[in-house]
């Protein structure tokens, strides 16, 4: 006890926060998003395989992804591209998105506070967690790379 305040014993669990990424950790979205992005990039003149999409863009914020795409494309993306990609992805999610096997049971056993820190935007995170039934574990504790100046791999988020 210092100055009349009680501090948790280090390692007791009271001083821990479990931070989850969303895509690929909580929800199995990468198998949906990467082939779709590859398809849409190929449609606009940047031939891309799902494997190349994973290698180049997976885990990056949209700002970083857009910059890489435009560098490879040699021109700016159409302003409507992100919205169209998001729309098509959400349509796919509603029919195919599933939680990572075992994650719901694991979340039920975690006693420490939990949150989500993702490169995805807030609408994407919320929709993915709603569809998979995981939102109740994270309500009010979802954080997006859109809230910080530097996304992954920087520790800002």
Structure description:
By secondary structure, this protein is mainly alpha-helical. 43% of the residues lie in helices and 7% in strands. The chain is built from 6 helices and 3 strands; from the N terminus they run E-H-H-H-H-H-E-H-E. It has a 3-stranded parallel sheet, covered by helices on one side. Strand 2, helix 6 and strand 3 (142-144) form a beta-alpha-beta unit. It is globular and about 50 Å long. The protein starts with 17 loop residues before the first strand and ends in a 13-residue tail after the last strand.
Keywords:
157 residues; mainly alpha; three-stranded parallel sheet; 3 strands; disordered N terminus
Strand content: 5-15%
Kindly state the percentage of residues in helix: 40-55%
Mean pLDDT reading: 89
Radius of gyration: 18 Å
The SSE order reads EHHHHHEHE
Number of strands: 3
Describe this structure in a few short sentences.
This protein is mainly α and 157 residues long. It has 6 helices and 3 strands.
Describe the secondary-structure layout:
Blueprint: E1 18-20, H1 30-43, H2 50-57, H3 62-73, H4 81-96, H5 103-109, E2 114-118, H6 122-131, E3 142-144
Parallel strand pairs: 1-2, 2-3
Helix pairs in contact: 1-2, 1-4, 4-6
